[in-house]
Structure formats: C-alpha cells, structure tokens
C-alpha cells in the first residue's frame, strides 16, 4: 500500500474544499450532480462502438450480441456474481491489450447482474490519471447519501489506512439491501490513490456481497496495475481462436460472409475483437460477395493500427529497424536478428529499446512479437522500401542449408509483380518443406509461388498444392480458401485438375464438414478423373471409395448402392489396346462387388470377393506399393466377413503407415478404424487407449467429424463398464453436433451407450426401449444396430420377453455366421444360452461362449458371460458351480473399474453362499450399508418395488410365484426395519 502525497489531499473538481465528497446541509438546496447523474451510463462501461459491435451492446439498451469464444471468461464472471448473490464477495482483474474485449466483458457482467445489483462504476481517463481521488469520485457518486457516516471519505488530510478502511466500509454498507457490482474499466489510467483504495477494499470484501471487477492493460513491473492489483485474481484475455473469429465476423456482417471467406478476412486480426470489427466495417460490397480479394491488413483509419504506429514511431531509427525485422519473419531467431543488425550497422544496444517498447519479445533464442495483430499492423504501415530492406537483410542473414526455404521466401516477399523465376524457386523450397514435414511452411510457400506465377494452369496447380499442405497442417478452413482460388483457374479442358480439386474438397468435407456433401463432391471428382484418364480408372475409383466411406458415415445406404453401381461400371469398362486391370483396380472391384453381395445377403459371393480383397492387399504390399488407404478398405472387408483379428491387424498396419508418412490427414481416420476393431474384438482397454489418442490427433488435425467418432467410441466403452459420469460427459452435445453434420454412425452410438448404462443399473425395460428405436430416431446405422443386438437380447430376456429376443437374435445370428472370429461367435453363444429354456442347453452354450471369449482374449465380455452363467447356475440350484464363475467375474469387473457390474457380481456371490470383499465404503469406515443385508434376489425385488411394480408384476418378471415375492418382501422389511413400500422406495432413492 502506497502513501498519499500532499497533492492527494487537495480538493478535486466536483468536491468541496474540505474533502472528497461533501454532503453538508448547505449543498442540499442546490442541484447535486453526485445524486442525479442520469446521463453518463451508470450501468455499463463506456467503450468504443466497434468493441461493442464485436462483443456486446454496452449502452445498457438494445439486444446484446453474444460474446464469441469467451466461455471460460464468462464462467468466471458467473462464478463471481453467483458468490455475490449468495452473500460472499470477491474481486477479479481482467487483463488484456487494446481491443481484446475487456469493456465488452464488463458490459456482459452488468447485464448478468441486472437490477438485482447496485452497480458502481468508473472508467480511467488519461487526463485525470494524475488527479488524486478522481476515480473514487466517480465510483462513489451513486452512494453519496451514505457519506454522512464516513467522515474520512468526506474530509481530506487523513492517513491512507483510515481512508482505505472507510472506502471498504462504505462499499460494505452499500450492500446492505442488495449485492453490489463495482467495476473499473481502464484501471491502468486510474489515479494511483483511487486504485490503491479500491484494491485495498477488494481484498477485504470476501464476507459481504460486493463483486469488484477491474479491467486493465498489462503493465510493466513498477506500474500501478502491477503493484496495486498483483495479488487480485487475474483473468487474461487471449486472442480469439479461428472458429470464434469467424463467428464474430459473421455476426458483424449479418451472415454475409461464409466460413471460408470469414476465415480469410479474419487473418490480419490476430483474433482481436476490435480488429475484427474494424475489418468488418471496412469491407466493400465486392469483398462481401467474394468477387474481390479480402483485405490483407487493417484499414488505414484503424484505431489499433494508429495505436501501434505511435508506439513504433517513438523508437530510435535502429530500434525501428529491429522491430520491422521481427515483423517480417514469424520464426526469427536471436542469432539471425543479431547477424542482420550487424549487416545493417545497428548498435546491439538498440535491441533493448525495442524490447522495452513491448513491440518485441525475446524468449530464449527466439524473437517474436506480442501478437499476430501487432505484426500485421506494423508490416502494413512499413513503406515498400522498408520492406525490401528488411527482407534483403534477412535473406542475407539466414545461413545454413536448412534455412534455404526461408531465404527463398524473403527473396520473393517484396515482389509485387509476377516473376516465374522467383515462383520456381519458391516451389522448390515448398517441396523441401513438405519433405521435412513442415506442412504449414510448405503451404505458405506454394501459395506465394502461385501468386507469382504467370501461367494460369501453373498457378492453379500451385494453389492446389498449397491447399493440400494446409489440410495436412490441420488448417481445413485455409485449405478451403485456397481451393476457391483454384476453381476459377480450372476449365473444361483440364478435367484432371478439376477432379483432383474436387477430391481434396470432398476429403475435407468428409472429415471436417458435411459428409452428405462429400458424397456428391467425390462422385463428381470420380466422373472428372475417369474422363481425364480412361486407360486408368484407379484415381476415379479412389474417389468413389472415399464417397462410399462418407455414405457409410451418414448411414445412407441407398446412396451407397448408387456409388457401388458407378464403381462397378468403371471397373468393368473395356480398357484400350487390350490392357489388363492393375491389382489396385481388381482389389477395388472385388471390394465393391463383395459389399454389394453382402448388402443383399448373398453370403457365399460376399465371402469369396472380400477374401480376395485381403489377398490382393498383401500382393500389393509385397510389390512395394504400400497404400495406407487400401489397408483401410481391406480392414472394412475383413470386418464384414467376420475376420476380426485380420481386421485389427490391417487397421494397426494402416496406423503405422500413416505415422511413417508423417502427415496428419490419414492418421485420425486410421485411429478411428483401429479403435472400432479393438472394440469388436472385446479388447476394451486397448480400444479406449486408441480412441483417446485418436481424439487428440483429430483435434490437432482439425478433423471435427473424426473427433465426434472418437467421442462416441469412448462413450460406449465407458457405458460398457457402467461408468455413467464418463459416458454422459462424452455424449454431451454429441447428438446435436453429430445430427447437424448428419453423422448417423456416430450418433447411433448414443442409444446403444445409454442402453448399456440402463443394463448396468438393472433397468432392462429402458434398455430395450432405447435399442428398439426405429432407424429414423437416431439409432439408424444398420451395422451398429446389429452389433447392439446381444444387449437387446439380454434386456428382453431379463424382462421375460423371449419371442422378441429370438426375432432380434435371428438377424445377428445370420450376420455372425459370416465370420470365423471368436468374438462375435462368443456373443452368439451367449445369446443362445440366454434364450435356452432347458438347463442342459443353456449350460452348453454358456460353456462354449466362455471358451470362445478366452480364445478371443476378451476379458470384460468373459466376465459379463460368467456373471450371467453364474446367475443361471444359482437359479438352477447349483450354487457351488456358480461361485467360481461369479468370483472370476467380480475380480475382472473390479480390475476394469466397472463398479456397477462388480457390485452385482458380489451380490450374486452372496446369494450363492460366498462373500467377496469389494472396495471400502466411500466414508472409509468398515461399516456396511443397509442393503448389504439383502440377498441378490431380495435386492432385485426391493428395486422393483421401489420402481412401483406390483407383486404380480415382480413375479412375472422373475419367474417366481406372487406368494414367494410376498415372503421375500416381508423378510426385506424385517431386515431393513421398514414398514411400508413407501419407506423402501425412499431408502432406495
């Protein structure tokens, strides 16, 4: 806490000579501006209109635009205001550079507070920053009538502690009737005394309903913000990400910009909301319609651009040159900057001036700028001569072969006219960057090479290469923007180029857009590629394979059939000069023919064709033509014919090949496929590990559709364990997002997962209802509906509905008959055991199922079958035979973290005459819950009673007599000390 200088004790404008705020009687007959200020926005921060446009309306009236990309920050505000409503105070400092939306965030806080809060406000003003008490004067005006009880605030000449303590008391007193929101915008411009007093109070209001919000720019060590607000919780405003920036621009232009155009417009903004607003406001009608290129920098009249320009011009000539060198290279090393400075004769000490200005940051050996926005503003303001000079210096200072691509970039950067020599040099540099996995650099180099190329066809090829590299770098929106530049350069005379453009566009739509659109785009690509290469249908067939994957993701198997027909027409078309089809074409032909046969239940032909696919992929691999994509299609063929182990092996090899390729495009899809294969085999821990890694890779690659697929797999795996919290977390928003993208396969996981949770919670009716949903209600993917049938059979049998279970199982039995793998054969045997009516048949099928589970290394499904088998043995009055199976099941469930299933296994063990100690109770003691006194059957009856079932309904469900139910119920009441069904229901809730 600082001391108050003598000048701080002098009066300020609006106050009497005797103190900060005077409410003595001689003033009461005059108009008092402290009591009747209704024209200065008492309820919202004052801010620039452009920031309001980018964030929220700040004038207290009219509809507010949503704050995009600020969910974390809004949650912090909600927490602060919520605590104030509950009677507890707190403080928060919002830190951010100019235009980051600090005022918009404060405005949102005011709106959230509403009329239930008393709002006190002040905004730091540069002209009053040296006037002591000016900030307090503005903050305390609405509560001037409380000053009578706080003389230290009214009078000058008091010690700082007395003043600060009474400000604290005054704020607490003002919260006597309703909570208080006190906000201070531009706190870095507030006078020091006021800032110290408000910070002092903010630290001491934890027990009163006062929320204090400061908004300030970051200050250097020793500044008022750094010293006064250092120990108050901070909320740093980071730049908006690309998605949020795009949505802000679409809000500002009322949807006139599509995602790709908005992404391109947002580039110079660096995610700064004010910059986005300035860019949106400067767009011409031609730029809005897409007929003119977007702006490459902020407009000339930009407030942000002027702000950074003023800071830049305060520097010495040498420091300016160093700042401009950093602006011209976003990967500048300190050694390179030092060499460039030496070449230009700049004193090394100038770097400290540049660094002190805040326009340059040095982190270890790297030189950077505070943000992409600062870089774009300063580079745009540099003259052409200045740009040429810094790029020439950097090209000369970059030494070493590994810097060759960057040297090429800097040599070409100042060029403002097409130059084929420079373009060719950039193309070579792009190839070098691509070969080393620097896809983002390669994309930028290809794009610049295209802009400098004179021939349209060469320019188109290079823009397409730039789009490929942008997609490989995980920048799907940028890739789409580059593809838009290719299309005007393609014509009917270049179907191959148009086809390859559509192929990439379709791939992006499949992984990160609308797969239903990808189907159409990829079919058009196939037509163009077939026209361009009649002698080799392989490129066209590759496009159709991708289209079939998109159709499968959307669950549109009518369209899938049309794709198959188109592919088979291509593969059976006569080749010129008696040529024979390549092994790749043969593989694709057999793949589509086999899938078509499987779709109409021609089992023999399907198995023959798809097994040939598995042989051909090995032939192609042995010839050295390692095609990752062909392995994925062969994997799908192996799944259809039931060779799950072979499918898993092919998926693992596809993942390994994608890793070796170094690109991020194919790896997420391969990981999704591998996770599915591990799950089909019942190897759930491996599947979960693969899905989690796939989730991370999908996020990094910008493939949102693959991310949704991985979340769906993780939700189902958690549901298998009965882990409701994890499953619901993974499913949160999945149906909405997947439905919007028409990802029927991914959304079909949700009812299956919820049904598994219901089974774990012994709610068979709910599980069956979910799994019986018609295809149009979200569980419409036919393959997943088949895979879920064993759970539907179990639910129906537990409900006593054997005939519907038999009908459902018939479809699964036919499909399982395709394969020779143990996983699905084991599930089929388990279903037969559940459906068996006689003891001997049921025991035979259970034993066979257990043997197949062991052969398939599926521990969790073995435990599920062992639990069902143990239950059947116990019901058949063979508790001694049941106990080993139940004991094994309980141990496996406990190791897998499947506590609901482990609890059921322990309950069955108790009913069979043995107790298996489970985990200690949550309280840590050795006490047992009241329900532990019940047998397994008594516990089941108790749950049914709590659910509202009658004795007769329970008897039908458990296949026992109503008299037996009545006897069990009397024993339950006796053991639990209850007297009625209502008390039992309350206990079980």
Task: Give keywords.
single chain; 989 residues; mainly alpha; five-stranded parallel β-sheet; three-stranded antiparallel β-sheet; 51 helices; 8 strands
What's this, in brief?
By secondary structure, this protein is mostly helical.
Give an account of the 3D structure.
The protein is mainly alpha-helical and 989 residues long. Helices cover 63% and strands 4% of the residues. The protein is built from 51 helices and eight strands. The strands form two sheets. Strands 2-3-4-1-5 form a five-stranded parallel sheet, with helices on both faces. Helix 7 (192-202) links the parallel strand 3 and strand 4.
* Uncertain ranges: 1-62, 775-779, 918-928
Q: How many separate helices?
A: 51
Helix content: 55-70%
Q: What kind of sheet is the major sheet? A: 5 strands, parallel
CA distance, first residue to last residue: 55 Å
Derived structural class: mainly alpha
Portion in beta strands: under 5%
